[in-house]
Amino acid sequence: MKITIIGTGYVGLVTGACLAELGNDVFCLDVDQKKIDLLNNGGIPIHEPGLEEVVARNRAAGRIRFSTDVAASVAHGVLQFIAVGTPPDEDGSADLQYVLAAARNIGRHMDGFKVIVDKSTVPVGTADRVAAAIREELSARGGNGEFSVVSNPEFLKEGAAVEDFMRPDRIVIGHDDSPAGQRARDMMKLLYAPFNRNHERTYWMDVRSAEFTKYAANAMLATRISFMNELANLADQVGADIEAVRQGIGSDPRIGYSFLYAGAGYGGSCFPKDVQALERTARQYDRELLILQAVEAVNDRQKRVLGDKVVSRFGGDLSGKHFAVWGLAFKPNTDDMREAPSRVLLQELIERGATVSVYDPVAMAEARRVLELDLGADKMSRIRFAEAPMDTLDGAQALVIVTEWKAFRSPDFEAIKARLVNPVIIDGRNLYEPGLMTQQGIEYHGIGRSI
Ligand code: NAD
Ligand code: UGA
After folding, report:
1. Which residues form ligand 1's pocket by a CB distance below 6 Å?
2. CA 142 to chain centre
3. pLDDT tens-digit readout, 96-109
4. Domains and their CATH numbers in the chain
5. C-alpha–C-alpha distance, residues 198 and 192, integer Å
6. Which residue range or ranges hold the UDP-glucose/GDP-mannose dehydrogenase C-terminal domain (predicted)?
7. What's the burial of 68, exposed, middle or buried (CB within 10 Å: 0-12/13-18/19+)?
């Protein structure tokens, strides 16, 4: 099928590459000329396991192309996927300016039937606004093209995006029952047929329910994490081990094991903004989502938990003290620094007068860029970017772990002890067993593990 993807970011690039891999003819559009040039020169703008190979293979086969040419992009695909960003507005609601700009472009150039697929995460009712924007542009130029807007939210996780897209646990599609909506449904069914071969994974529903499903999923996952973080902080007080508790409750199939890991708070481009946006939607209907307000407040506090642990161990005045930090990205296998808990920790350590040596396997360049924005150029001199994890340790009072990269799981603890000023590890992701740490002579502070 001929497909256009509008927005070549995490979701757009992965969607385009994976659909090309299945044999479709994909046109990826972006407004960012630098990104398009990089892709056309064989580069990849993000770190995402497996993506580079899929893009290269399909580019070589002529099944995917990258361009900033709006008219050509609209002419190309019968299916027009909108995969642009929906960042938080000043009041926390989803900013739809990029989605609506994409819709207007389609209306301005379309000729013949189009299915507009909302893949971006958008508030309930957005499909109606997309349709209205297209209609307005069509009527302004006296055009009368037929179209239908469907909702097809994306559930991939960064760091596992290609795998998640290629093996989805579900595909959610919302469409209306008009003749154009039925035609759109048939085309979506054909597009996703390769994913439904062994068993049907598609959930067909009305458009508003599909839009809502995406927010409900992210809000539920964020709730589980904040719930566990709150319990972990209590476990620290009462002398219980949150890891044992996690296994004890996760074994109940009604609860399950996933997304119950206590840590340094959730980050990333989606949970924080989507929880806020759903709260804003509720306010527009004079409702309050009290649970989600708590989820957000708990997460804001949890992002400070590592800083609090440093202060309770080393005091509030950290001037003259040096710390080692492992892991900067908001989660492993990505270089994404959006809302990363490491940013909150580093800000606190620097403001209290400390200097820091940091290491991340892939996010160093992106970290330099965002930390300079967070801290200002002069404070950047207080951060040293090390070339290897062990090179952060010399002269440091403690090692603080923020992101659970695999490479941090089995370090040489003797060498860590030898290089740190004090044998102290403050572990924001509960990577090590407290008992083994004590045996190694390491003072270990996990999250909810003060047994
Ligand atoms: P992103 O910021 O990585 O990419 C968005 C891209 O859209 C950018 O390259 C930008 O230049 C481009 N763009 C903006 N306006 C455009 C226009 N008018 N025409 C063409 N291109 C335009 O964003 P992302 O992380 O891919 O997220 C996109 C959407 O998908 C968001 O709504 C997000 O909530 C949702 N989502 C993201 C993830 C994820 O893991 N990142 C997962 C599921 C859903
Ligand atoms: C999340 C969802 O998992 C995806 O299904 C969704 O498509 C995506 O948001 C989105 O809408 O953009 P992502 O943000 O890429 O994906 O990453 P997650 O693996 O969900 O992790 C998010 C944050 O939660 C990370 O900071 C992670 O460290 C934290 N987390 C996750 C925990 O603290 N504990 C857990 O048990 C799981």
Report:
1. 6-12, 29-32, 35, 83-86, 98, 101-102, 120-121, 154, 156, 158, 269-270
2. 41
3. 999 999 999 999 99
4. 2-205 (3.40.50.720), 226-445 (3.40.50.720)
5. 12
6. 324-434
7. middle
